[in-house]
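Quick question, first post here. What does this chain look like in 3D?
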Amino acid sequence: MKKPKIKYYLKAKDKNPNNRTKEELIQARIHNNFIEEIDNTKKYYSFFVSLQATIKPKNFGLLKDNFIFNEDIFNNFSKQNKGVKTAMQLFEKKVDELFTYYQMNDIKPTTNQFKNDLLVKLDRKQRETQKQISLLNYITTKVTEFESLKGSGRKNAIDENSIKVYRTLRTYIDKYERITSTKLTFQNFNEATYWDFWDKLDQLLKGKITIEQKEGERKQNIKPNSFLMTSIRKYQKALIRVFKLAISDKITTNLNINDINLILDDKPASKDIYINEDNLLKLYNHKPTNKGLELAKDYVLLASLTGMRFESMEIAHETNIAYYSHDNYNFKYLHSYQNKTHTECYIPLFEPVQKILSKHNNRFPKFPVNQILNRELKELFKEANIIATSIVETHTYKSGVIKETKNISDLISSHDCRKSFVTNLGLKNASENIVLSVTHPDKKPSNVMINVYDKASLMDKAKQFVDEVNKVNKQKQSQLYYF
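> Answer (accepted):
Ran it through. Tokens below.
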């Protein structure tokens, strides 16, 4: 939205300029390229507002110009025009205030909306009583909408993990209302309420505040350290998005959603975890006690021997295994594509990987959702008696930094396997650049719009990787990383 422009005009009392000797009403014309598109035709609008001040035309402009506003003439009669000038300054201040409000809340007003809001600011019109919109009811509606759009491929569709964040946020809003005996609305939820919301939930999670449990409601788990920074940021972003959606639905709010201070600084937990080759070999030879753990075993081995992240592993089962036999090279590989970074790579498949895939009709198996998989991985590591520890440094919302030494079986997740791939090959003196060339980068490359990678270079990198692994295996043969 551009800053509004103001031009002043007189409401003529006579069509003949020579007869215009008495004071006339000043009107302000406001335009800001207000656009309304009807049937693909754009129409530009402006509107007039009375300044509620009068002036003699000769003190406003020149007769030959039909008394169009002339700043030099107006200033020449500054003493007589003092009251009018003050009225103009006050008027322009109100327009600027309204423009700032629209900008801060990312509102693109229509002509009528701007005019009505301006008349309210000028105390010439009573603001219509704003209906109080329940925050809890609104987010409940949005969760239902998100669930209906899941898997539709539409731009406003989100995945199940993201929907879970909004479901939890909905629960938090319900619990805050019960703690405070209030009903949250978009109109009464301001910055003070925003921070009180997180503080009250912090106390609830720590067990310092209790609320009566609803019938059928899960018991509130006590978390002595309350929110981790990574968790609270996730819910804060979700709450801000809810307010943005509300504003786009023409709901007024009292929270400045453009205030960057509403989202706490990112302080992710740090854990230095990778699964060394000895422990991977121990897992490879372990016989799990159920199918869920068997699939978790396949996941950790496949991901640690291909360097793929969870998202790539999730969709790998849709891709056929390819075979390359040319120029004295013979190896199987997976053409892997990652949506997050919009990158692709050819991943040569080690012999142990092919043996695992042979159990699944020579395809990557379909794995459970991340939450279930992580639970199965922890159980697998305990069952296989994988002994290793790591110091975990966790940042919390109100409890400072927590440092703990934990067993890998309590920490392992689907995201730790790529590090195992890179680290284990690095310990064998394989070139890090060559190893990384057959994995997806952490972030979207800056040259992603320039065709990213051509297919020939993907195969060149794959062959280079095969050469590098064969070279380091001549020095010391690996029992897992070999072709």
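Strands lie at 5-11, 24-38, 41-55, 270-271, 322-326, 329-338, 343-348, 389-395, 401-407.
The radius of gyration is 33 Å.
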